[in-house]
Amino acid sequence: MNWMNVRRNFVIAFLLLLLFSCKRSSCTDETGIHVSELLLITAGKQSYEYCELLRKAVKNDKASIKTLSLLEFNDAAGYDHGSVIVDLILLIGEENYVDAVKEANSKEKSTIEAYIDVGLEYGNNPDFKSQSLNSAFPTLAKVLQSR
58: closest CA among 95, 96, 112, 25? Predict the structure, then answer.
């Protein structure tokens, strides 16, 4: 047996395994919205059914949109969640999002506004990086700021 061939085959198999294990999350694949691994792990630790909520939210399920928007995350996961919320608004439309969250109380509106602010500033969409909530989503801004 040629040990060089065995070693080469092992390295190739390892690289292929590594390549195929780095695929996008099924949550991202199913919704078209990028969901970071950090966010999925953090959501799982908090027993949030994040992907299920997002799947329903992209189908314009109002209860899921509101529930998803009000999940609590800290640190980097909160920034990632804000990015998901901004992408969700862009996908379903500002009016549909407003319709789902317009009955939120003052504290909930404040939470949603904070997530959208960080999602706009640090999110995946370069067209929104320099925009404020008021310029990106003016109708939503009025609803969230009416407390």
Answer: 96
pLDDT band at 15 (very low <50, low <70, confident <90, very high): very low
pTM as predicted: 0.81
> What is the distance in angstroms between the CA of the first residue and the CA of the last residue of the chain?
76
Mean pLDDT estimate for the chain: 86
Length of the chain: 147
- Distance (Å, rounded) from C-alpha 81 to C-alpha 35? 8
Q: Give the closest residue to 30 by CA, choosing from 53, 8, 7, 13.
A: 53
Nearest to 88 by CA among 111, 67, 107, 69: 69
Tokens of 79: 């920034």
With CA atoms as reference, report the closest residue to 67 among 79, 77, 81, 80.
81
- Res 13 pLDDT > 70: no
Six token digits for residue 43? 């959501």
Determine contact, residues 9/16, Cβ cutoff 8 Å.
no
